[in-house]
Design brief:
- With 373 residues, the chain is mainly alpha-helical.
- It has 2 domains: 101 residues, no CATH class; 237 residues, no CATH class.
- The chain is 65% helix and 2% strand.
- It has 11 helices and 2 strands.
- The chain has a two-stranded antiparallel ribbon with strand order 1-2.
- The longest helix has 42 residues.
- The chain is globular, with a radius of gyration of 21 Å.
């Protein structure tokens, strides 16, 4: 296997983190360009690609790291996988609880009760998907993990059809909803749909594991084939086949991020392969690297920068320049909205924060500070 380093993989990971910050932080949720908003239910917008791309990038990174761990023996590998899984999951719980206090209707601060702490979310899903994918890859190896991913996708489809109620692909009929209520409890679930429903729930984590596995397999394939046009062509062909298969499957099993359908997995992995192919062509084959530093600084500290961005925004919501306005809305209303109006101002708010955390990443890289989780 070649030991070549691929800058394009770092850029892809950094681009994904930058996109996560961009779509998570509009100046106002009332003014968001359609491509920067999630699909209401079925379908897929550019924003719906960001999280599965990140899981794909986790798999890419695993393809380099796991072989190093395995050289230390089985016990060391299991310890590393378990430790990292628990650490990322724990960070997710703390992030969900942060800033640990909230404003009451009377204008006083009170501790946020653990009885209402959301258990799942982005980081807990990353943790579970990483841990499960790493164990499957470690024990089943590459071909076995590929087969396991296929089994997971079809088993998930089977579970939704058999245990779903009415329309199994609707919010009300989704089989994962009663499972989350039973195991997590309604008070520990997300309520973005107006009812207790977690888009990062337990059952839909099963197909999400496949995004990591496919990312790992893509990373292994790239390393084995090296920087050749044949490798690049195969990546693009595989990506195109997956997109075609996903669109065919969509006719009976709709592409849907919120319940993370199996067709959605194939669709997002296919697009990830095509995007990665384009990035690799520009960087590895054409040598066009002048634009890459902006994204590599995100890719060198991906989880830390994402956590930092979430912490800063949560602190905005806690700080109140006025009794009826937090710092988040104050910045938008007094700085970005006057500059660009409602829609453009909201976008500029998000773009400013991407640049802000790029500057943090640049400083950390200059100081050789790399936070590994």
């Amino acid at each position: 296997m070649t030991s070549q380093r691929f800058l394009s993989l770092d850029v892809f990971r950094g681009l994904t983190v930058a996109a996560m910050i961009l779509v998570n932080n509009p100046g106002s949720w009332d003014y968001v360009y359609p491509p920067l908003a999630h699909a209401k239910w079925h379908g897929c917008t550019p924003t719906d690609l960001v999280f599965p791309f990140f899981l794909f990038a986790v798999g890419n990174a695993m393809s380099f790291a796991l072989k190093k761990y395995e050289a230390a023996g089985n016990a060391a590998v299991l310890k590393k996988i378990l430790t990292r899984t628990l650490l990322i999951f724990g960070i997710g719980l703390l992030l969900n609880w942060f800033p640990f206090v909230k404003w009451t209707e009377t204008g006083s601060l009170t501790i946020k009760p653990l009885s209402q702490l959301r258990i799942m979310g982005v980081f807990p899903r990353i943790a579970l998907c990483y841990g499960a994918a790493a164990l499957l890859i470690h024990y089943l190896k590459d071909k076995g993990a590929f087969v396991a991913a296929g089994v997971l996708l079809f088993v998930y489809w089977f579970l939704l059809v058999v245990f779903g109620q009415g329309d199994p692909y609707s919010l009300e009929g989704y089989a994962g909803l009663p499972l989350d209520k039973l195991i997590l409890g309604e008070q520990h679930m997300y309520r973005g749909e107006g009812v207790p429903f977690d888009p990062e729930g337990l059952l839909s984590t099963l197909p999400a594991i496949c995004n990591v596995i496919f990312g790992y397999l893509a990373g292994r394939f790239i390393q084995e084939q090296g920087k050749t046009y044949e490798m690049l062509a195969r990546l693009m062909i595989i990506g195109s086949i997956l997109i075609f298969a996903a669109l065919c499957w969509d006719m009976v099993f709709p592409i849907n991020k919120k319940i993370w359908t199996s067709s959605y997995v194939l669709y997002t992995v296919g697009i990830a392969l095509l995007l990665l192919s384009v990035v690799m062509y520009l960087i590895e084959f054409r040598g066009q690297t002048k634009w890459t530093p902006f994204f590599t600084v995100f890719g060198k500290n991906p989880l830390f920068i994402y956590v930092l961005a979430a912490v800063v925004v949560k602190l905005y919501a806690l700080i109140r320049p006025a009794a009826d306005q937090n710092l988040y809305s104050w910045i938008y209303e007094n700085i970005f909205r006057p500059i660009g109006g409602n829609m453009n101002g909201s976008f500029l708010f998000a773009l400013f924060h991407v640049c802000l955390f790029a500057a943090v990443g640049w400083w950390m890289d200059k100081k050789k500070i790399y936070v590994r989780v």
